[in-house]
Amino acid sequence: MIDEVLGLVADEHWFDRSRPFEVSINLTQGACLWLLLTRRGVSDTYVKFSDCFDLRQEAARAAAASTRYPGLAPAFIGHASRGTLQVLVCRAVPYRRLSPAQLFHPRQGQRALADLLGYFDAMQRPQAVQVPGLSAAAEPAELLQALQAYFAGQPSAALARRWLRNDALSRLASVVPHAQHGDLVLNNIGVTPTGATVVFDWEDLSASWLTGLDLFTLELSLAGSAERLFAARLQPQSPISGLVARACEAMRLRRDDYETLTPLYALVFRYLKRNYGPGVRERMDLLLRDLDQQRNRALD
Questions:
Q1: pTM of the predicted model, to two decimals?
Q2: Contact residues for 13 (Cβ-Cβ < 8 A; gap 6+)
Q3: Over the stretch 38-72, which tens digit does the pLDDT of each residue have?
Q4: 211 CB burial (10 A radius; 0-12, 13-18, 19+)
Q5: Is residue 209 within 8 Å of 138, Cβ to Cβ?
């Protein structure tokens, strides 16, 4: 199949096979596989492919991210199919994984921090171009119904019912919805050799319009645990707390609204992971319980 994928990409004139190149293959457990094409070790082209999964929606979202957030998202090249085979192609970006230490370094992290804050600022700005593939923002009532229906049969049903009755819902109506990345965690953020930030895995773009969700997943990823997340919120001088304050300002989102919506963010993040494997779902359920315990302690 690899030769068929490379042939399709070459036929679309997205990659020149006549020049020497290297292929790295990622054989995942999911429905899709991917290739990284390099020349003399330098990243050139990223290809995601499948012969049993429809990549059209993900391709539309990758194109939308490339248009909405140029420089932050990898440049989208195209989507093509041949028979049952589909490919999604983007320009590959050389990078190293972003770490909290690097992000909060007084010199090395300045560019990365500015890029992330720029993302939160751009998120709430009107878009000059309507990009196909982005769904309309769901009404709060629709979001509530979807969460209630899903969590009714989950181990965390009682926790979800309690969270969906608290004051987070009353705050939701006053928050202007904006399309979210949906999985803005450290594993999906890199730093290029020039120090710029690049964000990957945009396949959930617009799956949620709950403003602040991306900041919550980033905050949790930086903290590393629910306990450290709530501890940082009690320390205004902590780097994470400072980032949250600046990101809320960039999004025009009140800090107290953001913190009140924490339970809803956690439920939506778990809901977005509903189709992942049982191991991921179990870890997310443990996270929900941990967040509940730490939140209760913070409120006491």
A1: 0.93
A2: none
A3: 999 999 999 999 999 899 999 999 999 999 999 99
A4: buried
A5: yes
Amino acid in the structure at residue 197: T
82 forms beta bridges with 85
Q: Which among 91, 126, 144 is the end of a domain?
A: 91
- Residue 175, judged by CB atoms within 10 A of its CB (0-12, 13-18, 19+), counts as buried
The two beta strands, 85-91 and 76-82, are: antiparallel
Give residue-wise pLDDT tens across range 165-198. 867 777 888 888 888 999 999 999 999 998 999 9
Phi and psi at 106, nearest 5°, equal: -60, -25
- Asked whether 112 and 102 are in contact (CB, 8 A), the reply is yes
Contact 263, 213 (CB under 8 A): no
Domain encompassing residue 227:
96-299
Model confidence over 129-173: pLDDT tens digits? 455 555 566 677 788 889 999 999 999 999 999 998 867 777 888
CATH number at residue 23: 3.30.200.20
Q: Taking CA 70 as the corner, what is the angle to CA 118 and CA 216, rounded to the nearest 5 degrees?
A: 45
Instruction: Indicate the residue among 32, 65, 91 that finishes a domain.
Output: 91
Side-by-side strand order, sheet with 42-50? 22-26, 33-39, 42-50, 85-91, 76-82
- What is the residue-averaged pLDDT of the chain? 90
